[in-house]
Specification:
This protein has about 625 residues and is mainly beta. It contains five helices and 41 strands. The protein is about 5% helix and about 40% strand. The protein has a seven-stranded mixed beta sheet, with no helix packed on it. It has a five-stranded mixed beta sheet with strand order 1-26-25-24-23, with no helix packed on it. A four-stranded antiparallel beta sheet has the order 2-29-28-27, with no helix packed on it. Belongs to the semaphorin family. Keywords: Disulfide bond, Glycoprotein, Membrane, Signal, Transmembrane, Transmembrane helix.
Length: about 625
């Protein structure tokens, strides 16, 4: 590990990106619903363009309707079957396991399929609308086995994806598998030896112009069974099957005949600092097939740090089609194992190809990120848990990727991926209780983001331009692709997503200087009033300067003399003491960012000659009470 410090330096040089949020926004007025108790929601569903979200809870399904003024809940009970609950408790399982935790909510054949653990006996129900169950002629709920769709325990994870009214599912645990589990197409599964003890985190469809070549990818972690004491305990991977797969004939009739898998690594191939555990993945598809389809993954490491990596899906697909196979030195059968072949009108795959796939499903090439390094490494004591990505049109009509990243502390990072850098535009704090973000759904039709923890669900606006509305500089420096400065209205406004619109809003999303962009904006920041402070000559005093941007450089100045300050999350504080003796005069705090300089605050300090103070404030430093100072705000 001697090379680790050098690699950290190389990461800093390679990624010219800001690794701390520029703004930290506490969204007290966010539209929010509190469950009232710990629900552990494992599933959320939202129809694009609607104002409702379905949330799977413990023994119930919640329908939440969001309006501008309130969130209205409606509860649909979904208790575990009495027999299943009784059997569960008889097997000495924990009472927590013997409930019905809703893990899957998917739209299928114009109805909703809802599946839960059902006291360790997974089961599915069908809704004809958000709150009404599908029933038979006798009025009984129509149900189906959820054994291959939902996990049996709430501690296990289930990943599902619907493609052409067919459900594909991946179950984590000791008997992990990828299956075509429900629908009109033939049911298929992976062989037991292909995915030992996998933990699935996501799935995505990679659509091709020729639909017979469509591929379905699943993203997961495997326990690294050969890991040494100082090696990573997990390996991230992706498995892939072809949509047209109908199983092998005459062997492997119920197994995938096109399954392949590969290692997925976030980091450089030759450097020691890599991220191996995948927390979440999202595939960003461009509308109308314009631009690259990109896989974004958030990874963690054994030492507690977090990173974001991106991968071209076209490059991944090509690697699957061309790579050597792991552990194979001899010839590869023809047709090549794993190719998407339309079954109709084609002869069955030869036995040699099927046997090869059964014994060698892993390709030899390791999938490394674009540019072979992370987009950035998160530099604080938090880690990422979730990621969704929006492709938004900026003021110049250029498509930009905006990442929304949920953290283990209940924060959401809004991140712009620009041409030559990645910028954390803002850190949003929308939740009342600190808990990991467990689910996020992006709705670019209505312009909202839905996010949940085990305690709450919130809805946020994607274009929240009011945060920067007062001033041209605030709007431009935010580098928020949803927002631009409207010179006529003198406000920060949302950028139209109409592809035919020709916007006239000011923006600067890349690294070029912003120094002259707001020269003709005819507006000024309102400066705070000069604060007057009187203090005993033998005392010490702290002067706070609130941080308006965590990407700016802050300076305290008096009579052209610069003073150092102490930085924390909220302030650049000027601390007088032995190294900085007390002085009187006007102390100004200024910030500089991208060529723009702003005066944040100013204090006029006078040394008290002994008169009785009007207002007393106790000042503590390093646990010692130094003095009582007088602050006179005149």
């Amino acid at each position: 590990m001697r090379g680790l410090p050098f690699y950290l330096l190389s990461i800093l040089c390679l990624a010219s990106s800001q690794k701390v949020p520029r703004l930290k926004l506490n969204l007290q007025d966010a539209q929010r619903f509190n469950f009232g108790e710990r629900e552990r929601p494992a599933a959320m569903f939202h129809e694009p363009g609607s104002n409702q979200v379905l949330v799977g809870g413990r023994g119930k399904l919640l329908l939440l309707t969001f309006t501008d003024s309130e969130v209205t809940p409606k509860e649909v009970p979904l208790k575990a079957d009495e027999k299943a609950e009784k059997d569960c408790k008889s097997k000495a399982r924990a009472l927590w396991d013997c409930d019905n935790f809703i893990q899957v909510i998917e739209k299928l054949d114009n109805k909703m399929m809802v599946c839960g653990t059902n006291a360790a006996s997974p089961k599915c129900w069908f809704l004809v609308n958000a709150t009404t169950f599908q029933t038979d002629k006798q009025g009984r709920n129509i149900t189906a086995s959820g054994e291959n769709i939902s996990a049996a325990s709430p501690s296990q994870n289930a990943v599902v994806i619907t493609v052409e009214d067919t459900l594909y599912s991946a179950l984590s645990g000791e008997k992990s598998s990828i299956q075509r589990s429900y629908g009109k197409k033939k049911g298929l599964k992976t062989e037991n030896s292909w995915l030992p003890r996998a933990e699935f985190v996501g799935a995505a469809l990679l659509a091709e112009k020729d639909q017979s070549k469509d591929e379905i990818f699943f993203f997961y972690n495997e326990v690294n069974q050969s890991a040494g004491l100082d090696e990573e305990p997990y390996k991230a991977g992706l498995g892939r099957v072809c949509k047209v797969d109908q199983g092998g004939r005459p062997v492997m009739t119920d197994s995938w005949s096109t399954f392949l898998k590969a290692r997925l690594v976030c980091g450089h191939p030759t450097e020691p600092m890599r991220f191996h555990r995948l927390q979440d993945a999202f595939v960003s598809k461009k509308e109308g097939g314009k631009g690259e389809t990109v896989l974004y993954g958030v990874f963690s490491s054994a030492w507690g740090s977090s990173a974001v990596c991106s991968y071209s899906m076209n490059r991944i697909s090509t690697v699957f089609k061309t790579s050597k196979f792991k552990g194979v030195t001899g010839p590869i059968p023809v047709p090549r194992p794993g190719m998407c072949v339309q079954p109709d009108g084609h002869p069955p795959l030869p036995k040699s190809t099927l046997t090869f796939i059964k014994d060698h499903p892993e390709i030899d090439s390791v999938i490394y990120p674009d540019e072979e390094h992370p987009l950035y490494i998160l530099q604080n004591n938090d880690t990422y848990t979730q990621v969704v990505v929006d492709s938004v049109q900026d003021a110049a009509g250029i498509s930009r990727d905006v990442l929304f990243l949920g953290t283990a502390k209940g924060k959401i990072h809004k991140v712009l991926r620009s041409k030559d850098q990645t910028v954390i535009v803002a850190e949003l704090s929308p939740f009342k209780k600190e808990a990991p973000v467990s689910s996020m759904i992006l709705d670019d039709d209505s312009g909202h983001l839905y996010a949940s923890t085990e305690f709450e669900v919130v809805r946020l606006q994607l274009a929240d331009c009011d945060q920067y509305k007062e001033n041209c500089w605030k709007c431009i420096l935010a580098r928020d692709p949803y927002c631009g400065w409207d010179g006529e209205q003198k406000t920060c406004s949302a950028v139209s997503q109409d592809t035919n619109s020709t916007g006239s809003l000011l923006q600067n999303l890349d690294s070029s200087s912003t120094a002259s962009m707001c020269e003709n904006a005819e507006e000024k920041l309102a400066q705070e009033a000069l604060k007057k402070v009187s203090v005993d000559p033998t005392g010490y005093i702290y002067l706070p300067c609130p941080l308006r941007s965590h990407h700016a450089i802050y300076t305290w100045v008096k009579d052209d003399k610069t003073y150092p300050c102490s930085m924390d999350e909220q302030s650049c504080t000027l601390r007088f003491g032995e190294s900085t003796p007390m002085d009187q005069g006007v102390f100004k705090c200024t910030s500089r960012e991208e060529g723009y300089q702003e005066e944040i605050t100013a204090f006029k300090v006078t040394l008290n000659s002994g008169r009785i103070p009007e207002v007393s404030v106790a000042v503590m430093a390093m646990g010692i009470l130094f003095l009582t100072i007088t602050i006179l705000l005149l």
